[in-house]
Amino acid sequence: MDAIEYAEKASEIFVLSDSFIRIKELIDDEASTIDDIADVILLDPALSGTILKLANSSFFNYPGKIDTISKAVLVLGITEVYNLVIAYFTTKAFKSISAPAEFLEVFWEKSVDCALIIKYLGFKLKVANAERLFILGLLHNLGELVVQQFEPEKVTQLNEHNDKSLPWALQKETFGFTFADCTGELLKQWQLPFSLIEPVRYQNEENFEHCTDETKLLYVAKRIMLSNHHSHFNVEDLADEAKLQELQIDTQMIKAVNEFCDLERLAILAILSPGAVTIY
């Protein structure tokens, strides 16, 4: 199977709920009000609780208390709340996956790390509304879960590689596509915005000439994350030095982003993937 076929099969198993579809419809409808969106979110107590926990976390660092969904939409904005809705329903959709608990713990830890790293880089580089980048990092590698569902032995073999072969090169060699390709196709199946699909799909692109800023930042964030989780990699092994210089990302910033990640990781994992906290 190719990446599209894997994604099509996965979209039949890992389904975003009717609540998500209704919220998406409201957000896409210019006639909808904040209260319309809040009312649908409130129908799902677990979703409401997750959004309020994230909205009041140090991740957003809002000075006051956000105690209602309407206020969350008003303060954070519709786009950011929509991203939180995507984050919630994505983690929920994959709860039915056939995979060892340890694999899932590591997967979500890496995903949250990538999300925190890209958000921090966006903030430091003064990208507008840097919080929105978080969802790119969180979703960037869902293709690995898709392939894990159908080819667990091959995924295990890939993860056991400890030489300096680039992970995406090994994926291409093994499957004929990368996990990024598969992730992009799954997000397309889910009818998520193109603004999410494009950076995820091109996260391994070495030619920055036609890449968006979001794609460039995901390229770097993913590589910083991998260097932290795999001792045989340095950032320099994974990311071209010229690209780091183009984005004005130096050793000091990489050190700072890793410290930020260490501070925030546990709190975000506890909200989005409580099971992953057991590794701590």
UniProtKB/TrEMBL annotation:
Listed Pfam families: HDOD
SUPFAM superfamilies according to UniProt: HD-domain/PDEase-like (SSF109604)
Domain HDOD: from-to ranges: 13-206
Domain of life: Bacteria
InterPro entries: HDOD (IPR013976), RNase_Y/CdgJ (IPR052340)
Protein name: HD family phosphohydrolase
